[in-house]
Amino acid sequence: MSALLAAFGAGLVFATGLAISGMTQPGKVTAFLDFFGNWDPSLAFVMLGAILVYAILYRIIRKRSTPLFTSAFLIPARSDIDLRLIGGAALFGIGWGLGGFCPGPAVTSLASGQAAVITFVAAMIAGMYLYKLVDNIRSQRTSAPMQESRLATPTTPAFHSPQDS
Amino acid sequence: MEHFTPVASLIGGMLIGLSAALLLLCDGKIAGISGIVGGLLSPTQNDTLWRAFFVVGLLTAGFMFRFFAPQVFTIAISRSTSALVLAGLLVGFGTRLGNGCTSGHGVCGISRFSSRSLLATLTFMATGIITVYIINHLFGGTL
Fold it and tell me: For chain A, N or C: smaller number of CB within 10 Å?
């Protein structure tokens, strides 16, 4: 139960940070990406603040052998660069610029009840499902061992591919 | 620069970093939103409930802002429904294919000095900048 409450609390703080920082404003996001136009650098400060805090706390926390409420840290271990990583990031960036939302602010902004964000999130979840379908077909063609080589930690179930996120 | 907000953005960013650290310290998990939401679509025992609680946390904060500070949802852009649908599909598919988004790669990954995350972040920034350039400067900001 503590682990679940912590997840709830983390979600609460995360969304508060998103809202205060301006990430839930699509117009600010596209103004940040309008690098060759009327550029608003605000969102660079979001990344700066987040990385500053997390980079320090990450190193302190990782000195522990286990987390407080679960048995193991689940940290991505991959270092290979492949086309999926680059292609996926490229597609994501196009969608980000087009819609003005990335996943966290989009989910948070659902609470606003605005039609635009509801449309966006419904399509985003459809896109995630589409990926799952394509990936299932792909992994049925190629055999299962490839999935196993991507395990982040031994505690991950073999059928669940690990994420960087 | 109509809405330059360096201080609010820095403080908001620090809260995001703090939240990610809280999730790591308590649950041992990486705060990547596309991964957390995507994982809900493939429920497995012991790995689904925490994701749901995190998402409920996001939404709870969202509702608090809706009622007490709705101005955080006001700076909109001019996009048609079909543009929003295409954008959502690309974000959903792309973040799953590339294993992360702004939070998982851009914040958590870069903080761990992951070369994968650095490269992913540079890539989505680049395609995002190109996309906005095309929309704002070739299509007059509306699509």
Answer: N
Q: What is the number of structural domains in chain A?
A: 1
Q: Residue B89: helix, strand or coil by DSSP?
A: helix
Mutate to test the interface with A, among B99, B125, B138 (most CBs of A within 10 A): B99
What DSSP line would sit under B46-61, residue for residue? Answer: TSSHHHHHHHHHHHHH
Residues B45-97: pLDDT tens digits? 889 999 999 999 999 999 999 999 999 999 999 999 999 999 999 999 999 99
Contact A7 B53 (CB under 8 A): yes
- When divided into structural domains, chain B yields a total of 1
CB pairs under 8 A between A and B: 553
DSSP, res A112:
G
C-alpha B109: how far from its chain's center?
A: 14
| Token pair listed for A63 | 């000195």
Task: Identify the bridge partners of residue B78 per DSSP, sorted by sequence position.
Answer: B142
Is A160 among the domain residues?
no
Structural domain for A87, as ranges: 2-148
- CA dist A16 and A96 (Å) reads 20
ipTM: 0.96
Among B22, B34, B76, beta carbon nearest to A27:
B76
Structural domain that includes position B141:
77-143
Assess B82–A contact: CB distance below 8 Å, yes or no. Answer: no
